[in-house]
Amino acid sequence: MTRIGIIVGSIAEASINRQVANVLPGLATDEDVEFTFLEFKDLPFYDYALDADYPQVARDWKQAIADVDGVIIVTPEYSRSIPGVLKNALDWAARPWGQGSFAGKPVAIMGASIGSTATAAAQQHLRAILGHYDAPTMGQPETFFHYRADAFGADGTLQDEAQASILANFVNAAVAHVKQFARVSA
Ligand SMILES: Cc1cc2nc3c(=O)[nH]c(=O)nc-3n(C[C@H](O)[C@H](O)[C@H](O)COP(=O)(O)O)c2cc1C
After folding, report:
1. What is the spatial distance between Cα 176 and Cα 178, in angstroms, rounded to a whole number?
2. 14 φ, ψ to 5°?
3. What percent of the chain has pLDDT over 90?
4. Which Pfam families match (predicted)?
């Protein structure tokens, strides 16, 4: 069984990226995969003074990442970059020094936006961060998802076939990427 964590880069209750992320597990064709959402909204601001004694919530966050074989990050673009809350969560994961949670951890990224840039700028910034972490990051398919509320049903299902096919391509490539690069698989 391959374990994949899904991180949503937004803590907004009505997050469109969470709405999109929610449909990904159902589009995976490989049945030998377990998806878990990894949540970071309770993390305080990172402060290196706490490196010697991480708060429990930060230990739990790092453990949650350690417990999966790979990660999918679905993030919005805020101010032409990733949201500050996601950067904060990544900073917690990167430390203490020498104990980075993403070293060697395969990651696939995508994002959804109603805007014309469709998260392209944010994803480039995220790739730079993940490269620094030595996380093997999926190159293709790049997925800049143009969100349309009318493509979703009231129950959260994605009813637009073309859009579902974009997400299916992404999640199935992400599964293959994690399986190829996961260092340890239970
Ligand atoms: C502070 C802020 C900055 C934003 N900057 C961008 C941006 O640079 N590019 C973009 O495509 N959308 C931008 N948006 C619009 C977001 O794409 C939109 O709010 C979207 O719903 C965010 O995703 P979420 O609902 O998953 O949080 C911004 C929104 C906020 C709140």
Report:
1. 6
2. -100, 25
3. 96
4. FMN_red (PF03358)
Q: How far is the CA of 120 from the centre of ligand 1 (A)?
A: 12
Tens digit of pLDDT for each residue in 12-21?
A: 999 999 999 9
Q: CB-hemisphere CA count at 13 Å for 5?
A: 23
Query: What structural domains and CATH numbers belong to the chain?
Result: 2-181 (3.40.50.360)
Alpha-carbon distances, residue 32 vs 46, 50, 155 (angstroms): 35, 38, 26
The whole-number pLDDT of residue 183 equals 76
Query: What's residue 168's pLDDT?
Result: 98
Closest Cα to atom 2 of ligand 1? 78
Residue 75 CB less than 6 A away from ligand 1: no
The number of the ligand 1 atom at minimal distance from the alpha carbon of 17 is 26
Cα atoms found within 13 Å of the Cα of residue 137, Cβ hemisphere only:
19
DSSP state, 96? S
